[in-house]
Amino acid sequence: MFDPLVIASGLFVGFVVGLTGMGGGALMTPILVMLFHIEPLAAVSSDIVAAMVMKPIGGAVHWRRGTVQRGLVTWLMLGSIPSAFLGVLLLRRLDAGIAVQAHIKVALGVALLVVVTGLVVRPLLISRRGTPQPFELKRIPTLLIGIVGGLVVGLTSVGSGSLIIIALLMLYPRMSLSELVGTDLVQAVPLVASAAIGHLLFGNFKLGLTVSILIGSLPGVFIGARFSSRAPDYVIRPSLSVVLLLSGMKLIGASNLMLALVAPLSIAVGLAYGLSVARRARRERATNVTELPLVNGTSSVPHPAVAVVSAIRSAEHRRN
Q1: Final residue of a domain: which of 228, 252, 276?
Q2: CB 271: neighbour CB atoms within 10 A?
Q3: For the chain, is the Cβ count within 10 Å smaller at the N or the C terminus?
Q4: In terms of residue numbers, what domain contains 187?
Q5: Which residue from 190, 148, 189 is spatially nearest to 166, judged by alpha carbons?
């Protein structure tokens, strides 16, 4: 009943979700489709039902810590819950024939490429945020984000984290990142639940497949969350971007030759980005050590060499 390879994939995907806050449906569904040859509709249905169990874990943490804009959650839910259910109904209406399965694959591939774009754009949006400003709710644009995001989630299981949080970053660029993540996680709980109920009623839900995903993904989420505070963003972001880019291209029908050309190029770009950010971080740390604050013309914090000399002199003074 349980597939060890699916469990292992769930562990990996859960770890990525706990580590980065995104990538659940964007990774798990393509893995099920391409590696395990699960029908796209069954993969979407089973993955999104599993996500219904995973999402409340992160949302509950942020809710307790107060990093959730509740008004924003309300307007997102007003748009996303009915549109997510509508997305499932559209799948049911279209039937699950071969042609429809192909359309679902293309839609999923397009969604993944949008996620990659968001991952690339997100650091630029964060750098523009500057000092956090008083929050001002934009009701209609937020409602539209919920509608579009919910529809995509209902159709593909992708977007409850990645797509919506990128849209929120674009609409609220000066909001604190912790609030953006917390708000997105909380709004994703009813959104994913709505889509999951739709898939339970009208989709192609497979109990054994879903349980296999959960067996791996639940401990994966926990382990990933434990390591998330120590994992550098410049390692996770390019890795996730490369995986999603290649998955998206494969789903929209890119040839093996095209994938063979893009894969090394994207890996090289990701490595260059990671090394560049790592060097910049080391330079900033070195600057913080050498450029110490001055009080009355002298350094308020001793230079490391000065601290060593002072310690030696103190030891000699105590011996005398």
Answers
A1: 252
A2: 13
A3: C
A4: 4-252
A5: 148
Q: Dump pLDDT digits (tens) for 128-154.
A: 555 555 678 899 999 999 898 888 777
Condensed to tens digits (0 to 9), the pLDDT of residues 200-250 reads 877 777 888 889 998 998 888 778 766 765 566 677 678 777 877 887 787
How many domains, in total, are found in the chain? 2
Give the 3-state secondary structure of residue 299: strand
Do 243 and 284 fall within a single domain?
A: no
- The distance from CA 279 to its chain's CA centroid, rounded to whole angstroms, is 24
Length of the chain: 320
Percent of the chain with pLDDT over 90: 5
Q: Based on the domain organization, do 17 and 133 belong to the same domain?
A: yes
